[in-house]
Amino acid sequence: MKIVPFDKGHAEDALCLVNLLRAAPITLSEFIAREARWPVDDLRLCWLRYEDDRAVAYGQIASSPYAPADHLAVQIAVDPDYRGCGRGRSMFDLLEREAIGRGFRGLVSTLPEAASHPQAWAEARGFHRHALHSDSLLDLQTFDGKAEVSAEVSLTDMTGANEMQWREVATLLQKLIADAPDMRDLPPWTMARCLTVLRETPAARPEWVIVARSHGSPVGLTVGHSMGNEIYSYFTGVLPDWRGKHVGLALKLRLIAAARAQGITTMRTTNLDTNMPALRLNASIGFRRVPGSLELRKTLYSGAAATPVKPQ
Ligand SMILES: CC(C)(COP(=O)(O)OP(=O)(O)OC[C@H]1O[C@@H](n2cnc3c(N)ncnc32)[C@H](O)[C@@H]1OP(=O)(O)O)[C@@H](O)C(=O)NCCC(=O)NCCS
After folding, report:
1. Segment 279-295, tens digit of pLDDT
2. Do 126 and 151 sit in the same domain of this protein?
């Protein structure tokens, strides 16, 4: 048995295990492309456990925009043929020691809402339930095409936008994201991250970034990402003074129309299950709830292990 830090040469082995954690598997070329896009300044440590030249467990700790600054997001996958014999536990022990050794105060794990066994496994390791992120789907084929609502704003997408316009919208996203209940206790987003979400990630589409303006000033936006055959309604936000005036609804309806125009049949979205304004807005459009994900957190105590381990 050996545990080795992950590097490019292990991509194929890692992919088989990483795909166990994904709702939809990705290909090797997509995996390699994602590896290349990982921001160089973001901390990420990954290991693979080999037994008789077979990769049987994968573990990763990484900083994440969805984790507090002093927490790391953790992922562990064990080959189904090798489960139930302590491989997951020993990988977790390694990740935990590494996180503590680097001065982190906690870990975040995000698991499918319906995955009761992994949840029980994590809870037995000291994680507690922190938040439920519910997913909702809208069938764009049967959507009744609700008439566009009249909100006292103009709506435009970002097709053909220049650098100054992208920066203006990124500034609005930065402000709105900071105000979303999902982001409470999370670090503020940098302009670079906002521009990545709006424009640079391969999932972004300028025609799916829709901005609401009043007398030229942006007051709200919605962002859709391409996710296979679906559109993922990534974020919708409206400045506080403009809430409750159907701006959010108008933005979402325009995004739905833009997606339908491209033949997309399903819109997916995720909301914190306590974010009532967002949930009610989606319910009013006709989204139906499907299983989402559970976020668990664990507080780390430096007494548990103080020195980083050196995997052989
Ligand atoms: C969620 C959000 C975008 C809604 O935008 P909005 O412009 O205020 O919403 P609308 O005025 O278009 O509301 C449309 C419908 O949604 C529901 N709704 C929206 N806000 C609501 C609230 N605070 N309480 C109850 N229902 C609400 C209502 O059904 C409403 O229709 P009605 O007024 O005819 O009853 C806005 O609250 C916001 O920016 N929140 C912070 C960012 C955020 O959390 N985004 C979601 C994460 S992706």
Report:
1. 999 999 999 999 999 99
2. no
Domain count, the chain: 2
176/262 same-domain check: yes
Quick check: helix, strand or coil at residue 245?
Answer: coil
Query: Which residues span the domain enclosing 88?
Result: 2-132+295-304
Residue 38, helix vs strand vs coil = coil
With a 6 Å cutoff on the Cβ, whether 270 touches ligand 1 is no
Q: Is 181 in the pocket of ligand 1 (CB under 6 A)?
A: yes
Among 113, 100, 97, 107, which Cα is nearest to 127's?
A: 107
Asked whether the predicted pLDDT for residue 234 surpasses 60, the reply is: yes
Share of the chain above pLDDT 70, in %: 95
Report the C-alpha gap between 289 and 291 in whole angstroms: 7
Question: Long-range contacts of range 62-69, CB-CB < 8 Å, 24 or more positions apart?
Answer: 64/108, 65/186, 65/187, 65/189, 65/193, 66/108, 66/110, 66/186, 66/295, 67/108, 67/186, 68/106, 68/108, 68/185, 68/186, 68/187, 69/187
CA dist 240 and 256 (Å) reads 23
Ligand 1 centroid to residue 249 C-alpha, Å: 7
